[in-house]
Structures are given as C-alpha cells and as structure tokens.
Design brief:
The complex is a heterotrimer of chains A (264), B (164) and C (793). Helix content of chain A is 35%, strand content 23%. With 264 residues, chain A is α+β, with helices and mostly antiparallel strands. Chain A is globular. The radius of gyration of chain B is 16 Å and the shape is globular. Chain B is 36% helix and 14% strand. Chain B folds into 2 domains: 75 residues, Roll (Ubiquitin-like (UB roll)), CATH 3.10.20.30; 73 residues, Orthogonal Bundle (DNA polymerase, domain 1), CATH 1.10.150. Chain C has 793 residues and is an alpha+beta fold. Chain C folds into 3 domains: 180 residues, Aldehyde Oxidoreductase, domain 3 (Alpha-Beta Complex); 322 residues, Aldehyde oxidase/xanthine dehydrogenase, molybdopterin binding domain (Aldehyde Oxidoreductase, domain 4); 147 residues, 2-Layer Sandwich (Aldehyde Oxidoreductase, domain 4). Helix content of chain C is 27%, strand content 22%. Chain C is built from 19 helices and 28 strands. In chain C, the strands form 7 sheets. A 7-stranded mixed sheet of chain C has the order 3-5-1-12-9-10-11, with helices on both faces. In chain C, a hairpin with a 5-residue loop joins strand 26 and strand 27. The chains are: A alpha+beta (264), B alpha+beta (164), C alpha+beta (793). Chains in contact: A-B, A-C, B-C. Chains A and C meet through helix 12 of A and helix 19 of C.
C-alpha cells in the first residue's frame, strides 16, 4: 500500500469538502474491496476520507419503500427481520455477499459506488428501481450504473442513502465463482405491481444490466417456465478461466429461473 | 504520524501508525500480538480474523486508524483470566480441529462469532457456510465442523449457569 | 490420567499454544536491529535483463542496501543445488542448468528474483523496489508441458536442447512389447495430471541473523527439514561450514512438500545478514507464494494395458511427460521417476511394466513434490485406466480389480518396477470400504437423485503407495545425493523425565504427541514428562526431516533404536544396583525387575544412579542415560487401501456436489487414531481439491492466470462433506513398530475415486474420461456436447 493522509470527518459536508479539496483523495466506506485494491498498489490516493464516523446507518421500512443508509453494513441488512418480511430478496442478497467478516465491514453505499461488475447489490438497485440519494441529488438506479466500476457519481459526491421500491415478490440467486465467491451470475428478480424488473450482475462486460426479454415474459407470466426458452446472447458477456461467455449465457437462464421459482 | 487509540483484549493502547498501517500490522508488529496471522493478500483466507466491537472482522482489510476508539479482541484475549480455555478453544482441542495451527486463530474467532450469531442452534451445513471466509489446508474441515457443533451448547449453556 | 500409549487418541500436546495465539512461527520472530527484504520479481516469463539500475532504489528513504544476482555472484555465492540426479536411457546424466539465487542475465519465469531491496521496514523496502529501473528484452516463452517438446519451441536454457531435462525409463520393454503383441485386448488412455499450487496457509518466511561476536549465522525458516537446508545452503550456496551455521524451523504452518526445498530467499537473507551485520527478514505475500513456492504434479501421460480375454492384466505401458518448470527444484527429478514409475504396479499383479518419462523445462515456476509426490500421479493413471478398462470391456469395475489384485498370501511381492511390497491385504480394505459406503445400495440412490434432476455417481479407487523412502544405499544408487535415514536422541534426565530430539519436523502432523506416546508406551513415563524437540540444528544431532510420510516409520524407528540402547544400559545399571545378572533383568513399563523375584527399580532410580554415579559400575559403564540412534530403513513401507466417493452433478449447471466420502486405509500400526484420521481427512480434502477445484493455469505466454485465491480455487468447508475414515491394517514387516505412514494416503487415493464417480455419474452419456479438475464449467460443456446414450431409468 502507498501511504496516504487519513481523515475521518464527522459530517457529510466535511467529507464532501475534503474530497473536493484534493482531487487525489478517495472516500473509504467499508473498505472490503477498496483496501485490497490499495494493498495491491492499484490505487494511489493522497488522502483517504474515512466515512466511518458519518451518521448514515439504518434501515427504514415504509409502506411502499425501504430506505437504507449508505453506511449500513451487509450484516445489518442480512440480519434485519423487518426487512426480511418486507423484501426477502434483499435480505437474502446481503447474506450472500462475501463472508461474515466481510459483511461486518462492507457497506451498501460502498458497494454501489464501486460498481464492481461482480458485486451483488447493483442488481437489487436496478431490479427495485432504487433511488440513490447523495449529498446533492437523487439518481435513479437506471441512470446510476454506467459500465463496470463507473457510476454517475461526481468525484466528490457521497451516497447517503438508497431507497428501494418494495416489490410484491423478490428473490436473489447467485452462482458463485468457485474461487473468489463473487457472482459469476447473480440475478435479482422483483415483481412490481406495474411489471417485473430483473437485473443480472457478474455476467455483463458492462457490469450490471436489466434483462428486458426476461422482464417482458415474466410480466405476463411470473413463472420459471415463462423464460425457459429465452436464450441470452453471449456476445456482451464476460468470459474468463472460470466461465466462458457461453456458460454465463446459459447460467443466466438457470439462475433466473431459480430466482423466480423461489421469489416470495 | 497519526495516532490511534483503541482497546485490545481489555487493555488501552495509543499507538503511532502510518495511514496505511493495517489493523493486523498494528496487532502483530506494534503490540506483539502475533497470534493473529496473515495468510493471504486478497481478504480470502481469514487467518487474520479478530473481533472488533464484538464482531468478526478481517484485520488485514481494516486500517488501524479505522479502529480508533474501538475494542478489539484477538485469539490471545479469549481464554479466562486464569488461563481456562474458551469453550471453542477447548472443543477445537477435543475434536482435533487443528493441525499446523496457522489458520486456527482466525478459525476460532470466526467460529465464536458464528455461534454467538446463532443462539438457536446451527446445522452442519450452516457451520460450513459460516466458514466461507476461512481457509484451512490441513484438516479438510471435518473436525472443525465437529468442534463448532460441540462448542455451541457449551457457549449458550454458560450464560444461565453464570446467572445462577 | 487415562491410557496414553500406542493406540490411544491422546489430545495433542501442541494444541494449547496454537489455540491461544502462542504458536511461534517464523514471521513471529523478530531480532534486534532487524531489516526487511523485499524481493523484486520478474513479471516476464522469459526475458533477457538488458539493464538493471539500482541507484535510485538504494537512495530511497529507509533503504540500507540493494543487491542483484551479480552482487551475489561477485561474492562467490553458488547456485541453488539439485539433490537428485537422474540418468537418461543412454546412461548419460540429466541436464542440470544453473539456478542462480537471483537471476543473472535472464529471467525464466514470472516470479524469478531480479533484485532484493533491504530496508528498515517492509513498506520502505517495497516502496523503494518501485524505483528499480529494469529493462527487459522479452524472449518467446514456453508455458506448457506439451509445448516444451514442440519442434522449434523456445529453449528455456540455452544449453538444454529441446528443453529435455532427461529421458528416462524403467522396466523391460521387450517383455512388455511381446505381451502387447499377444494380448486379446489393449485399452489406451491419454490423461493429464493437473498442476497444483500447494498453498500451505503459512506463507514462506526466512530470517537471517549474524552474530558479530562469534561469526555464526542463524537462519530461521519455514522448512520441513532444517538439517537439509543447512547442508545445501552451507555447502553449495554460501560456503558456510556447518559449525558456523544454525538453521531453525520453528512452528511451521503446513508444508505438504512445498517447504522441503532450499529456496532462494533463505540464501538471500542469510547472506545479506552477514554482509550488513544485521538481521534480515523476508516474509512472502500470498501472491509471491503462487509464483515462488514449488508447484506440484503437471504430467501428461499415455497409458496402455494389455489384457487377456478374461480381463487379466498382461502388461502396462506408460509414457509420461513431466514439467520441471524453469529450474530444477531440490528433489524435482526424482518425483516423476522413482516416486512415480516405480508405483505403476499399484495393487495389481501386472507381470510386465514399462514406463518412459521425459522431464521438460518450461517458463513456469519450478515443480517438485507436493503431498504424495509422484504416487498420486501413478495412482490416478492406474485407477482411471482400470475404470476405463471396465468401461471398454463391459466388465464390472470392482470385479476387474479383485481379479487382478496381488493376493494377501503373495507377500513379500516383487513388482516388475523395482519395488518389493512387504505386506498388504487389498481385498480387506476394498470390502470394508464398499460396506462402509453402502456400495451395494447405490443404484437406488442414483435413481432417487435422478428423480430430482441430479446425476449421481459413485467411484472407487484401490491404491497403494510407498512411504519412508529408503534405504540410503539404494536411493544413492538411484541418484539421491543424500542419505534417507533418521536420527533420534533420547535423553532420560536424572529425575526420570525425558527429552527426545528428532530429525523429523512437525508442521501439523502432531509429532509432539505421537512421539511422546511412543516413548511413553515403551519407557513407562507419562507423556507430560516427555518433551519432543525438533526443528533446530543446534539441538538435534542430525536429521533428514519430514516428507514422504516417513516420520513415524523412519524417525519413530530411530527412537525405538535409541530407547533400546537406553534400556540395555539401564539393565546393566539395574543389575549392578540389585546385584543380579544382566540377563536376569526385565524391563517393562518403566520398571526394571529381577526375573522371578520381587526386586525392582524404577526408571527414575536408574536415571538418578546414572547421573549420580555413587553406587555405579563406573569401570565398565559411562555415567548418564542419553542415547542417540541413526536408523536406516531396510525398505519403503507400503500403505494402501480403498477410497469410495459418491457425488451428484447438477444437470443444469454441471456443478458437482459431494455427497459422501469413505476412506479405508492400511497405514500399519496406529499410534494415535485421532491424528491418523485427521491426516487422512486433510489429504482427502486436497485430493478432492485436485479432482474438482484446483488448477494452476498458465496462458500460452507464461503468465499464471490462477495466481491468487481469487482465481485458484482452494477447497472451502462448504465444498466438502464429512470424510469417513476407517483403518484395516497389516503390519509393516521390516520396522520395529509395524507402522507404514498416513500423511499422504488421503491425497493419493482420493483423486481417482472422485473422478471415477464423476464419470460414473455421466454413465448414460457414455463418457470415457475427463481430465481434472471437473469444474462446473467443464462438465456443462461436456453435457452440452453429448447426449444421453442410454435411456434414463
């Protein structure tokens, strides 16, 4: 790791200012992806702005929405009984991320801001038409993810909370990379009153994406059979030593059907 | 150099560190607590797991400065003051859940957290899933699973006993 | 205290420190004034070093020195030696190119050391290493075993034409060819044995120290055999005599073979400590482990069996290409030869066997022994071949094994590939394993799984291995440059407690307990009064270390020999004290008795008399009760057994899920059943890892794609199931304990059992063979490319 100056601001405004003052400053949320990147010397920030002191934690369950503070850990999401009753898919997704020790530190805001193409949360944000609230504005999930490791965030912009539309039914299913345990294919399916949204993570060259063919079929018939015959072209999918693009294309269908089957 | 103040195994420390100093480096190199190990550089192996404010954390994936004001417990801090082993340590010994001992501190700290989080019981499958973030190359995990299952009733049986 | 002698599952003495964070591993050791070394490694698989400028790095904050290969060569530092010489078919010696400690002129694999930066802190050394200015002229690289032999392939070493290290053979080609000519059927199989990264959980580390007063060097290192390191590094690399060099291998966090070898970093820190007059420590990061620890396996083979009409094996012919990597690691040449081809008889009475092995250089990390070392490769080849024979002939896979087993009454049995097995009973372990796995009831379970969309399979392997490599004279004639005996020093202290010093080394095997049980059983002393000391050349007379499942068979036998000397001397002292004839003294469980009387003396009476020789036969006997023995075994030992694996394949994803694993092993006499069970389970986990998960993949340019735990699949708890272990034993006939060894059986017997189960699960698809690892992605492709050939039941 390269050395850096370390700041732990007490307010969002201070954090934004620190990030704005120094173009080479970087925000640190849970650090479960970012610290390994630093350890590999793949990033060389001059200043680390630790968001750990900011009051951005908590899960607020409303009638039609659930709002989660950006610094809420995966473990908090995974263990929330209230959330489990409201959006079982989201609670389940959180329990699939990394391992227990990682979930104790990793945060939802950090995951979304990083937009790792194999991360789990972006699929939930897309499938539940989330609104990502920052220190300065609100961004729809559909506009937020802009290709792998790329988002609509300004360099000094900080996510403060994420609001999900509560679906009638939801589920997350993940096919894990056997080595890293990141998603090779992760599918979040959400059945809303006005239709189904289904997002895929882990597979796409451009990061998370919505699978419109599946969404259309499921909107008229929410059952695994409805999508069984829909193939996904492998052209824009990742291929690596663990899974070819063709295998990923196939898995998208398998994993999506399994997600639909268990949605509740 | 910045300073970090934290409690480790009940003892208060204030230490100068670099911004980039990891919690595990603070423990091993500044405080001489070499029971916590480093087995990888990608946050996968879990040899470095400690408890921070009561929760299992990979100390190789946390800056020392992030732990400011927090309470850290390491493998050196879980036995009773008189040296009596924690039930998890005792069951690891009883069930031969360790061989070379290198993954053991992280494994034990993860196992304690896992049992704490599941007061109502744990199936073998849940234990295996709960060890997702800890690698052992010696045991094949069989005896680790047995040890954790055996420690569960001892850990959750202790509270009522102490209250009597 | 309960029974704690031979046969008791005594809880381990070493566990208290490991469980409390008081283990003492190399990286836990710090010496006053210590510096830190960071090794700059090549990121090129094959390149000429056009220029290497160190001035900027040397001037960086905290840096004390930067050294290159040239600096070490200028100081007369030698290259890393190879400990085994193989001879070609024509009798000429193998190619043995130099292996500089730090690369000189050329780099030959990603990870090859290019320079070392030594600084006041780890981070300062690493920061400064970025200031090294290195210019490479890239050279074409050869990355895979088969590519090495392609005509016109780049050569890894200029003076090794065609990249062939050796071209060796064993067996009677003429007899084999004749048997093939008259065979009713020939079954042929081509297969690879996948390359593995050992990945002991403790990364390697080395700390060199120099005593400016005495001029003595000390090396603390993560080694399985400190005396061997002292010998190799002292004599061949740094030219330090043994009396000035101490090597300490403290607690070591797993080895599995990868910590046998003498590595560059050990020489670098020791040499640098002498140069700088300060201690120098190096600790591997895991990414360095991947590119600098010796890898394992990596064979490409063709196997052919000649059969008569009823399925009797007539002759076996094998051709193997083995990857040595870029340089010869310490024991690399013997692995695909004397630890592999000599095992090709397995448990079968195949009357004629011929094997030829070509070892090749590639631009990859050196390959050497990894848990099992040659024997897993032989077992995998043979046990896959037997299942393929069953597949091709329609014979039952259990019956064909039974038909060809060496029968229990045929021992000692001389194989056609040099080894003479002393004991075994393969039907016994087969039957016990089939019963434990409910093999007979499997088809019902297959049908039940089918109903839920899972392809269920069961596989068996009946295997044999050779442990405790020996005797020294024989291995010497085969090219070993070391003896393979073991040493024990047993000290009975004046008040009767015992310290035993062993040349073996424990890095997870529980020697402190097993050896204490052995001593306790023979000497009648409770194990808490017995200390087992290993891993320090300044304390232990000598030793060859721990590998090849040799510690109990060879090291334990040395202890028995030393105890025999103690007892013989004790009898003389007892005879004197009790005024009896020596021949009348009997020793049992700590007591010397005069036969036929009630007169007796305890071991403590005797030891006290030995150290306080007031009433003592001083004219004929020296004081003290302290004996050393060197034990050179008469033969290998031959553990064997049967492993049964049951698993399911998800038809939609190809992913394998383990269902059950049963191992029944004949490891000879068992000292501590709990520890034996643990050793087998750990070995099986590594075998399952090889079969289903692990693969060191190089791209065609020589870059290691699976270079971290993000891409190299280590078995995790949820990949595995409970591993049921049973033992059915026959005794080794040539060592005093009847023990055979248990450290490697798991890794040797299990991979073919798993793969045979995978292929059995795909029975209706008519699949004949799949190379390891059977990942979900690979099986899915096979399922896509094949359609069921039989109707589903």
């Amino acid at each position: 790791m390269y050395d850096f100056a370390y700041q732990k601001p007490a307010s969002v405004a201070d954090a934004v200012k620190l990030l704005g003052d120094d173009p080479d400053a970087k925000a640190l949320a849970g650090g479960q992806t970012f610290i390994p990147v630093l350890k590999q010397r793949l990033a060389k920030p001059s200043t680390i702005v630790d968001l750990g002191k900011l009051d951005l934690r908590g899960i607020t369950v409303g009638a039609d929405t659930v709002t989660i503070g950006a610094m809420t850990t995966h473990a908090a999401v995974a263990s929330s009984e209230e959330l489990k009753a409201k959006i079982p898919g989201l609670q389940e997704l959180a329990s699939w991320i990394g391992d227990e020790a990682v979930r104790h530190r990793g945060t939802m805001g950090g995951s979304l801001a990083n937009n790792d193409p194999a991360a789990c949360y972006p699929s939930a944000a897309l499938a539940m038409d989330a609104t990502i609230k920052t220190d300065r504005r609100e961004i729809k999930a559909d506009d937020f993810f802009q290709g792998m490791f790329t988002t609509a965030l300004e360099p000094n912009e900080i996510i403060t909370s994420i609001t999900f539309k509560v679906p009638q039914k939801s589920a997350y299913e993940k096919f894990r990379n056997p080595a890293s345990r990141y998603a090779i294919v992760g599918v979040f399916v959400a059945q809303h009153a006005n239709g189904v949204r289904l997002a895929i993570t882990g597979a796409g060259q451009g990061g998370v994406f919505r699978h419109t063919a599946f969404e259309q079929a499921l909107s008229s018939n929410f059952s695994p059979d409805a999508i069984a015959g829909i193939a996904t072209p492998p052209d824009d999918l990742n291929g690596d030593i663990h899974a070819s693009a063709e295998y990923r294309a196939h898995l998208i269908n398998v994993v999506a059907r399994r997600a639909v089957a268990k949605a509740r | 150099m910045p300073q970090v103040s934290l409690t480790v195994n009940g003892k208060q420390h204030t230490v100068e560190v670099e911004g980039r100093t990891l919690l595990v480096e603070l423990l091993r190199e500044k405080l001489g607590l070499t029971g916590t190990h480093v087995g990888c550089d990608t946050s996968q192996c879990g040899a470095c797991v400690v408890h921070v404010d009561g929760l299992a954390v990979k100390s190789c994936t946390m800056l020392a400065l992030q732990a400011d004001g927090m309470a850290v417990t390491t493998i050196e801090g879980i036995a009773a003051a008189d040296g009596t082993l924690h039930p998890m340590q005792e069951m690891f010994r009883e069930h031969h859940a360790l061989q070379c001992g290198f993954c053991t501190p992280g494994m034990v700290m993860t196992a304690i957290d896992l049992v704490n989080a599941h007061p109502d019981g744990l199936t073998d499958k849940e234990i295996r899933e709960g060890l997702e973030g800890n690698l052992c190359r010696c045991t094949g995990y069989h005896n680790i699973v047995k040890a954790i299952a055996a420690a569960h009733p001892l850990m959750h049986g202790q509270a009522p006993k102490a209250a009597e | 205290m309960g029974f704690e002698g031979i046969g008791a599952s005594v809880r381990r003495k070493e566990d208290a420190r490991f469980l409390s964070g008081r283990g003492h591993y190399t990286d836990d050791i710090n010496r006053p004034g210590q510096l830190y070394a960071f090794i700059k490694r090549s990121d090129r698989p094959h390149a000429r070093i056009a220029s290497l400028q160190t001035a900027q790095a040397a001037a960086a904050p905290g840096v004390v020195a930067v050294f290159t290969g040239q600096d070490m060569a200028a100081d007369n530092v030698g290259g890393l030696p190879c400990g085994w010489q193989i001879h070609n078919k024509d009798g000429s010696p193998m190619a043995e190119p130099p292996h500089p400690v730090i690369a000189i002129g050329k780099v030959r694999h990603v990870g090859d050391p290019v320079a070392v930066v030594i600084a006041e802190s780890r981070q300062a050394a690493k920061d400064a290493a970025e200031l090294l200015e290195i210019e490479y002229d890239d050279l074409p690289a050869v990355a895979t075993t088969l590519d090495a032999l392609e005509p016109g392939a780049p050569t890894v070493h200029d003076d090794v034409a065609g990249n062939v290290c050796y071209d060796w053979h064993i067996g009677d080609k003429g007899t084999v060819d004749a048997a093939f000519a008259r065979a009713a059927k020939v079954v042929k199989l081509e297969l690879t044995n996948n390359r593995l990264v050992p990945n002991a959980m403790e990364p390697r580390a080395a700390l060199g120290d120099f005593d400016t007063s005495s001029g003595d060097f000390t090396l603390y290192t993560t080694s399985q055999n400190p005396h061997v390191i002292r010998l190799l590094m002292g004599a061949f690399v740094l030219h330090i005599p043994e009396n000035k060099l101490r090597v300490v291998a403290p607690d070591v966090g797993g080895g599995f073979g990868s910590k046998i070898y003498h590595y560059a970093e050990e020489a670098i820190v020791t040499w640098a400590a002498g140069k700088l007059r300060r201690p120098v420590k190096w600790t591997a990061e895991r990414n360095e482990s991947f590119m600098s620890d010796a890898h394992g396996r990596d064979h490409v083979s063709t196997a052919e069996m000649a059969l008569d009409a009823d399925g009797t094996f007539l002759a076996l012919r094998v051709a193997t290409i083995a990857n040595m990597g870029a340089y010869l690691s310490t024991f690399a040449p013997c692995v695909p030869t004397y630890l592999y081809a000599t095992l090709l008889a397995g448990v079968y009475k195949t009357p004629a066997i011929y094997a030829e092995v070509k070892a090749v250089f590639t631009n990859t990390v050196p390959v050497d022994a990894y848990r099992g070392a040659g024997r897993p490769e032989a077992t995998y080849l043979l046990e896959r071949l037997v299942d393929v024979i069953a597949h091709d002939t329609g014979m039952d896979r259990v019956e064909i094994r039974r038909k060809n087993f060496i029968p229990a009454d045929a021992f000692p049995y001389q194989t056609p590939v040099a080894l003479q097995y002393d004991s075994g009973n393969y039907e016994m372990t087969l039957k016990a394993a089939l019963d434990a796995a409910d093999f007979a009831g499997f088809e019902a379970r297959r049908a039940a799984a089918r109903a839920k969309g899972k392809l269920r399979g069961i596989g068996i392997s009946t295997y044999l291995e050779a442990c405790g490599i020996a005797p020294s004279a024989v291995v010497g004639s085969l090219g070993a440059r070391a003896g393979l005996y073991e040493v024990a020093n047993v000290k009975v202290h004046p008040t009767g407690s015992i310290t035993v010093y062993t040349g073996t080394h424990s890095h997870g095997q529980g020697h402190e307990t097993t050896f204490a049980q052995l001593i306790s059983d023979q000497m009648g002393v409770p194990i808490d009064q017995i200390e087992v000391v290993h891993g320090d050349t300044s304390k232990i007379p000598f030793g060859m270390g721990t590998y090849g499942s040799r510690s109990l068979a060879v090291g334990g036998s040395a202890m028995v020999k030393a105890m025999d000397k103690i007892i013989a001397k004790g009898k003389k002292i007892a005879a004197h004290l009790m005024e009896a004839a020596v021949e009348d003294i009997e020793f049992d469980k700590g007591t010397f008795k005069v036969a036929g009387t009630d007169k007796s003396k305890t071991l403590t009476d005797i030891s006290l008399a030995a150290y306080v020789p007031h009433n003592y036969p001083i004219e004929e006997l020296e004081p003290g009760l302290d004996e050393t023995a060197f034990y050179d075994p008469k033969n290998f030992t031959f553990p064997g057994g049967c492993h049964v694996c049951e698993l399911e394949i998800d038809q939609e994803t190809g992913v394998v899920e383990m269902v059950n694993f049963v191992a029944v092993d004949d490891v000879g006499r068992v000292i501590n059943p709990m520890i034996v069970e643990g050793q087998v389970q750990g070995g099986v986990a590594q075998g399952i890892g090889q079969a289903l998960l692990e693969n060191a993949i190089y791209d065609s340019n020589g870059q290691l794609l699976s270079g971290s735990f993000m891409d190299y699949t280590m078995p995790r708890a949820n990949d595995l199931v409970n591993i049921s272990v049973g033992t059915e034993i026959t005794l080794c006939t040539h060592n005093p304990l009847g023990v055979k060894g248990c450290g490697e059986v798991g890794a040797i017997g299990s991979p073919p059992a798993v793969m045979n189960a995978v292929i059995d699960a795909l029975k209706e698809y008519g699949i004949r063979h799949i190379d390891m690892p059977a990942t979900g992605a690979k099986l899915w492709e096979i399922l896509q490319a094949n359609r069921p050939k039989m109707a589903a039941e």
